[in-house]
Specification:
The complex is a heterodimer of chains A (about 375) and B (about 375). By secondary structure, chain A is an alpha/beta fold. Chain A contains 15 helices and 5 strands. Chain B folds into 2 domains: about 220 residues, no CATH class; about 110 residues, abc type-2 transporter like fold (3-Layer(aba) Sandwich). Chain B is built from 14 helices and 5 strands. Classes of the chains: A alpha/beta (about 375), B alpha/beta (about 375).
Chain lengths: ~375, ~375
């Protein structure tokens, strides 16, 4: 036990004496949270649109005014004919062109219906969709205003209550996701590198002939990063609360317990990678190239898993970050207790156990 | 020239002798391109809901079946109390709850206003918004048909409510079916190629330093410039190869239209890859260990990816963040790829961006060559 203590102390010293790496390890996650917390949004803000007003009457100009008053849009160009549409789209700045048909107001009063064409640059279909929805909402509101006086009183009103995230802020959605991405990559990347480094440098031989047991070596290697990641969780949480005002409804104790579980999952994944890889380069490429995109894309961090094709939904089940995301969002935003999230927790524990068993099997006590 | 040739030979040997790296460089990117391109959509496919129907009337049934008829909404379960429904909502088994009040039908048929309650899981705000507006429009339609029925029954003149209707007609250029695959494949390809380029080159020089072989290179008559070229070219070639592979897959696998010229794309990709390699080498020259280098490279990559406008539109970012993306090479290249491949843009539309990439690449190369010192200590 004494030698194990000594080994752990050595590991801590080795990591914490390198101030440069430390600054990077503690600073980068904070910086990332700050940048992304502010920058990642999926609502539209100041999208550039063009207007082709063939009617030039009082109704069309009121609608144009409403559109330019909206925070979502910024009218960037006034077109005079259809022929210009292509040139503007090819330049790439304008995302939507709103076309008012000729005699817009007259059609509206005479036949009771008039049409607005929304031509979108659909090379980004997600954006095109959002922009259209926003424009439709503005036009719809205006139409309702027009009809307010003549509409019959009967009707069904919908009272909508937005639970868990009243102001529909995307920060509240993304911050828990960022925690998962940061923890996953830092923990897996760092452990896999530090263990393979010993292999590459030849220190592994020295460790293996020492009286330390293999699992002691691994635990000793992993422990400093566990501490480091817990500190990171703490700083991220403080930032989330005080800088971004993300609500925290649930229990802090549960949150930290689940975070530690997830860190252990990521660490065991790192250990597994290092047991497969022979040198640092391979370990890094595996943890980065293989983990980065799937963790971002398949965890539900940005894109809802429910929208994906079924095969991908199935694959997403093996991404540990997916389960942690459900847990974190549950605790932070919904105030879920363990009774609600026990299944996800159990799955995380299961994934962790699989990685630990696999790496124990793979970890060679002898050198070739 | 001979020296460079031997340097290149050495680098290639070093890359290809590591058998574990080959699949990471050549197979995994292709697999990811194939799989992940399908993941990136916000499109609402279906949402499950729980129902609390306190009225149990014909009207309430009608409304519920209207909701289901759209295909978006699936009735998951029915409850008599709000508490149970909320538990399902909290577990995420349903996305929203519809509550119909007791006197729903009575009020409706008596020509009075009534209301239904909608409780939506708003953790994902944009999904919640979509659900809300879909439900609202369905209810509005239903309400309108009811109103007309009642008015006809009441022998009132419908004409007197001259409802004015402004309809919008959406036309989606370049991608009429709003197919997100077409959009995602070029973008994800850019990310994969950049990742491989940056990580490989970022680790390279620092690795030689860590192992100590850099000393041996330093005492040879190789010039700084030759050294850099020897480091750049192999990864550049790997990057180009991956890109070509990806483009072929995009064209023949995903059937993505190539409206613009392929030569234009390849020339720009060549310049872009130089920039990425040089950025990697730059990281390599300012760090001491592979661990540091990788962490920095990883950080830069995540920032570039998430702020590249591929996953969340640049238009959604606050102004200062939109300005920051001007310094993001990935954002440029994704934009160029999209413009040339999907819209058929030519040099006239993209030359400014290409110019910026070239200037940055040249500047960074100068700095890295300058920072790399042949003397140690």
């Amino acid at each position: 036990m004494n030698s194990f203590k000594g080994f752990v102390i050595k590991e801590f010293k080795q990591i914490y004496r390198d101030t440069r790496t430390l600054v990077v390890l503690f600073g980068m996650p904070v910086l990332m949270l700050l940048i992304f917390g502010f920058a990642i949004r999926n609502e539209v803000n100041n999208a550039k649109v063009g207007v082709l007003d063939l009617a030039k009457d009082e109704v069309s100009s009121v609608i144009i005014q409403k559109i330019s008053a909206s925070k979502a849009f910024q009218i960037h160009a006034y077109l005079t004919s259809y022929d210009e549409v292509e040139a503007y789209f090819r330049e790439g700045d304008i995302k939507e062109i709103i076309v008012f048909e000729k005699d817009f107001a007259r059609n509206l009063t005479r036949s009771g219906s008039a049409t607005i064409q929304l031509i979108t640059d659909a090379t980004d279909p997600n954006l095109a969709n959002i922009v259209q929805t926003y424009t439709n909402a503005i036009v719809g509101d205006y139409a309702q205003e027009l009809n307010a006086s003549s509409m019959p009183v009967v009707g069904i009103k919908v009272h909508s209550k937005m639970l868990y995230n009243e102001e529909l802020a995307s920060v509240n959605l993304f911050v828990p996701g960022l925690i998962a991405v940061i923890l996953m990559l830092v923990s897996a990347l760092m452990t896999s590198i530090s263990i393979t480094k010993e292999k590459e440098m030849g220190n592994m031989e020295i460790l293996l002939v020492s009286p330390l047991k293999p699992n002691h070596i691994i635990i000793g290697k992993v422990l400093p990063y566990l501490v480091l990641s817990v500190v990171n969780v703490f700083t991220i949480l403080v930032l989330a609360k005080f800088v971004f005002g993300v609500p925290f409804v649930g229990s802090y104790l549960l949150f930290f317990a689940e975070s530690i579980l997830f860190i252990v999952t990521a660490l065991s994944l790192g250990v597994f990678i290092s047991s497969v890889a022979n040198n640092q380069q391979t370990a890094m490429m595996v943890s980065l190239v293989v983990l980065l995109l799937p963790t971002i894309l398949l965890s539900g961090f940005i894109f809802p898993i429910k929208s994906m094709p079924i095969p991908l939904q199935v694959i997403s089940n093996i991404i540990p970050a997916k389960w942690f995301l459900v847990i974190v969002r549950g605790i932070m935003l919904k105030g879920s207790g363990i009774l609600i999230i026990w299944q996800e927790t159990a799955i995380l524990i299961g994934i962790t156990l699989v990685f630990i068993t696999l790496s124990l099997k793979k970890f060679k006590v002898r050198l070739q | 020239m001979r020296i460079i040739r031997f340097l290149l030979q050495k680098e290639f040997l070093q890359i290809f002798r590591n058998k574990a790296m080959l699949p990471i460089i050549f197979v995994i990117p292709v697999v990811q391109l194939l799989v992940l391109s399908f993941a990136a959509t916000y499109e609402l496919k279906e949402a499950k809901f729980a129902l609390i129907d306190r009225d149990q009337s014909i009207a309430s049934r009608e409304l519920v079946s209207k909701l289901q008829a759209t295909g978006y909404f699936i009735l998951q379960s029915e409850f008599t109390s709000e508490v149970e429904a909320k538990i399902q909502l909290e577990k995420g088994e349903v996305s929203f709850i519809v509550e119909i009040p007791r006197d729903f039908q009575q009020l409706l048929s008596n020509n009075k206003a009534t209301s239904i309650q909608l409780v939506i899981d708003a953790v994902d705000g944009s999904v919640a918004n979509l659900i809300n507006s879909y439900v609202n429009s369905i209810v509005r339609d239903y309400s309108a048909t009811k109103a007309v029925n009642i008015n006809v029954a009441g022998l009132q003149n419908i004409e007197q409510f001259s409802v004015k209707k402004i309809s919008t007609q959406a036309i989606n250029w370049y991608n009429p079916n709003l197919d997100y695959i077409t959009y995602m494949v070029p973008g994800i390809l850019v990310i994969l190629v950049s990742m491989i380029g940056l990580f490989l080159s970022g680790m390279n020089i620092v690795r030689e330093r860590e192992i100590g072989t850099i000393e041996q290179l330093n005492v040879t008559p190789i010039t700084k410039f030759q050294f850099m070229v020897g480091k750049l070219v192999p990864f550049w070639m790997i990057g180009m190869f991956d890109l070509l592979l990806g483009l072929a897959l995009a064209r023949f696998g995903f059937q993505i239209p190539f409206l613009g010229s392929l030569t234009t794309i390849l020339i720009i990709a060549g310049i872009y890859l130089v920039l990425i390699q040089v950025l990697g080498l730059f990281i390599s020259t300012i760090t001491d260990t592979q661990q540091q280098a990788m962490f920095i490279a990883w950080f830069i990559m995540v920032v570039f990816i998430l702020m590249g406008g591929l996953f969340t539109p640049i238009e959604s970012m606050p102004m200062w963040a939109q300005k920051l993306t001007l310094a993001n090479p990935i954002a440029y290249f994704i934009k160029i790829m999209r413009m040339v491949l999907l819209k058929g843009a030519g040099w006239k539309e993209v030359y400014e961006m290409v110019l910026i990439i070239s200037v940055v690449a040249a500047g960074l190369l100068a700095v890295s060559v300058n920072r790399y010192k042949k003397t140690s200590g």
